[in-house]
Amino acid sequence: MSDDESERKPHKFSEGEGLDEDYEEFTLDPEELQADPSQVDPVDTRVLTDLLDERNIPKDRVDVESLMEVGLSYMGINRFEEATETFERAAQFAEDDSLEQQEAWVNKGVAHAQLEEWDEAIGAYREALRIDDDSEHAASAETNLAYALHENGQGEQALEHAENAVEIDPRFPQAWYNRGFFLVERGLLEDAVTAFDNAIRLGMRNAEVLEEKARALDELGREDEAEQAAERAEEIREEAEQRMVEEQAEGGAGSAGAMGGAGGGPGGLGGRDGDDDLDLGGL
Predict the structure, then answer these.
(1) Of 33-37, 129-133, 194-198, where does mean pLDDT reach its minimum?
(2) 279: which strand partners?
(3) 6: which of 40, 48, 71, 155 lies 20 to 30 Å off by Cα?
(4) pTM beyond cutoff 0.90
(5) Residue-by-residue DSSP string for 25-72
(6) Are 233 and 214 in contact (CB under 8 A)?
(7) Residue 9, C-beta contacts closer than 8 angstroms, at least 6 positions apart
(8) Which of 277, 7, 280 lies closest to 147 in space, CA to CA?
(9) Is residue 141 pLDDT above 60, yes or no?
(10) pLDDT, position 61
(11) Residue 143: DSSP 8-state
(12) Is 207 helix (H, G, I), strand (E, B) or coil?
């Protein structure tokens, strides 16, 4: 793993001045909203805060699913602070201890992780697991928690949560990748290679997982296999760079799917197939 890959890229933040305090279009009437929430620019957090003031709006009048989409939109434009606030409000207005509320806590943790606010991220994931430690979102919470603990200097606890994620959902490739990474850290190389192979078999065929597999194979003395994995990782990187060049040549129309995370660790930011919640885990 190169020094460049192990360095974190600083997050870029959009900036906006918002609206003046006395801008009448977005003042809140006690009986009804004067502005149509569907027409509010999600970048304007002051408007979002005003519209979703629990003192004025009952829970049953808030579309939590739409609010979650606003949070994801913030994530897509690297407005992670606003995303944390939005996901927290989604959790606030969701039914207590519901899957929807759990999903909001997982996403809030991911947003904090992008800001490297590890204590807050860990707290959000633990709250998600408190709601349900065996639901469709629990594996994401466990995987993300493992990553956050590692980044927060609590690596001794990380493997336990990576193992939990695999047990909850053995078809979650990011969970297998994280498990493999932490097994390498413990020197359990054969088990790590098996974990990386499972991640690849389940569809996680990116450069990072192959590079970590190559590292484990090399430490096991299986040089030929390590070289093959490293060569394939380099091919994937070159293919990705070529696609980026082509997209820029076509006007910069890139994919709006998974967002790139930091390299050099057991996870990046990505989307999980079939789920709306975000995940840390090797992308």
Answers:
(1) 33-37
(2) 270
(3) 71
(4) no
(5) GG-B-SSSBSS-GGGS-TT-HHHHHHHT-TTTS-GGGS-HHHHHHHHH
(6) yes
(7) 262
(8) 280
(9) yes
(10) 64
(11) H
(12) helix
